[in-house]
C-alpha cells in the first residue's frame, strides 16, 4: 500500500494538469528504506510528448546524486497519461528500473477530474496497490 500525504498528491496532480496535453513526470524522494514519500521533485519530460515520457538524463543524474547525498531514494516515480486510463503501458513497464518504488499514474483525460493509481513493477510484473491519502504521517 502507498501511504502518501494529500499535499504530495495535490502537487503531482497540479504538475500533470500544468503539463497537459504532454505527459508530466517526476519523483517523490524519501529517506532510504522508509517507504515514506516526502520531497516532491517535478522533472522535465525530455520527450515533450502526449504519449510518452522520459526523464532528461542530465536532470535525472542531478536528482539521483542529490538523493544519494541526502540518504534518500525514489519512493514514488510518477507520470501522467493524457488520453488513457492510469495503467502502465508496455513502455512504462519496460522502463521501470526501481523495484522498490511505487509507480503512480495520473490520468488527465477528463478535464473535470483525475484518476490516480499506484503500482509495483518488478521484473515486468505489474501489481496494483491501494493508495491511502493522509494529512500527515504517523510518527512511530
TrEMBL record:
The keyword Metal-binding applies. GO terms for molecular function: metalloexopeptidase activity; zinc ion binding. SMART domains: JAB_MPN. Pathway: Amino-acid biosynthesis; L-cysteine biosynthesis. SUPFAM superfamilies: JAB1/MPN domain. It catalyses: [CysO sulfur-carrier protein]-Gly-NH-CH2-C(O)-S-L-Cys + H2O = [CysO sulfur-carrier protein]-C-terminal Gly-Gly + L-cysteine + H(+). Keywords: Amino-acid biosynthesis, Cysteine biosynthesis, Hydrolase, Metal-binding, Metalloprotease, Protease, Zinc. It is an enzyme of class 3 (hydrolase). PANTHER family: CYSO-CYSTEINE PEPTIDASE. Belongs to the peptidase M67A family. This is CysO-cysteine peptidase. It comes from Nocardia jinanensis. The lineage of its organism: Bacteria, Bacillati, Actinomycetota, Actinomycetes, Mycobacteriales.
